[in-house]
Amino acid sequence: MDRLEEQGIVSAADHIGKREVATVDTIRTAIALQAAIPEDADRATIVEALVGASDDIAAKALKSVHKSSEKAKASPL
Fold it and tell me: Could you say which residues of the chain have pLDDT below 50?
């Protein structure tokens, strides 16, 4: 379990003992980020990569919400 936490696949247990499990998309994004950031990268490079990734994730989430709302509007009751 410690290894899964270190890899970011599961979160640390909360006060009840429950854990959050990463989605496949989250894991893929983390792997892509790890591959894109050189081992000797400075802090600014790492922050830039993380900000770009979070912007991509937010954009995907907004598109998904927009598609869902468009489907809801188009479907007759």
Answer: none
Give every CB contact of residue 22 below 8 A, 6+ residues apart in sequence. 8, 9, 10, 30
- Give this prediction's pTM: 0.46
Contact in structure between 14 and 2 (CB atoms under 8 Å): no
* Cα–Cα distance for residue pair 66/44, rounded to 1 Å: 33
Pick from 40, 33, 31, 1: nearest CA to 17: 1
For residue 33, give the amino acid letter: L
Q: Which of 49, 44, 45 is nearest to 32 (CA)?
A: 49
H or E segment and range at residue 40:
none
E-assigned strand segments in 1-77: none
Does an H or E element contain 28, and which? helix 24-36
